[in-house]
Design a protein that fits this description.
378 residues, alpha/beta, Aspartate Aminotransferase, domain 1, Aspartate Aminotransferase, domain 2, 2 domains, seven-stranded mixed beta sheet, four-stranded antiparallel beta sheet
Length: 378
Amino acid sequence: MSFDFDTPIERRGSWSMRWERYPPEVIPLWVADTDFRAPPAVLEAMRERIEHGVFGYSAQPAALREAIAARMQRLYGWRVEPDWIAFLPGVVPGLHLAARHLMRADQHALLPVPLYHHFRQALERSPRAFTEVPLVLADGRWVFDEAALAASVRRETRLLFLCNPQNPGGTIFTRAELERLAAFAAQHDLVICADEIHCELLLDRGKPHVPIASLAPEVSRRTVTLASPSKAFNFPGAGCAWAVIEDAALRRAFMADDHATVHGPSLFGYAATLGAYRDGAQWLAAQLAYLAGNRDLVERFVAATPGLAMAHVEATYLAWIDCSGLAAPDPHKLFLDAGVALSPGAQFGAPRFVRLNFGTQRLRLAQALQRMAKVACP
């Protein structure tokens, strides 16, 4: 079966956050959703719910719990019991729940950066103390600075945040890297909160995703794993995510706000997830091949443009571009003035970087890169 990722889809007028912030002459490559129509399996699952015609309050589907557990076993050899799963409207609320309920107000968290900005916001709004620990670039990959992590831990440190695959850096952390991180967490009795929402957006063959909780039962018992198919199958607006939490006490603490300040997924999120997991495999494989081609296009552009640099993107559809070699003090403004809207690096704690979303039609991506090249090399 073939799938069309090249035909543009008009998103203006559809309440798209990404497409409606800027005027029509700007190509928006910022917010992390793609410009691809959701898979036929997802559309069909939603269509069936619409045709049913009644959209009442929804119970959590046992079939979805079982599908998630079966997928974790099949993809990662990770045994997950269905009752370890706590449903959420999205991964971002899960970050806030972790900050508020998995550590006390007088405790401290570790935050490897650069990092998706909602991690920091979750801690700031709790509020909870935290230390940002910079990742380091080694052999073209953003990886943990293990010495810096060890130097940053305090007596009151309780929570270690992890983003794997890493956003914005694009790293898939290896089993050995995760084993060392898990040992560090055990040594200091830390709870790990792992955002693994990009786990199925793997662009390099031979580089598998390893959920950190899957390493060993003792790691699982100190880990909260946040996940959702909304990135891989492109339906974030439908709202369906979950936390996998083996330890019952940790699970109860995490879900203290369940049906209080945090509600469950939408009916359409449940339906979309089941559709994606049952019949979306061919579409996902085709999308990954297309995204890998887009990734390669971006990497060639960066390599050929003086003043720009980037690590190899192993996963996600996000390019973390170092613009420190450019004369312009504000690279985000430079490219926006040229008609390309990117995510400013300051949002991730690195103002000399920009994050580019290449989850779009290839012709549009090429047009954006041409505009960027004109101002990067005037």
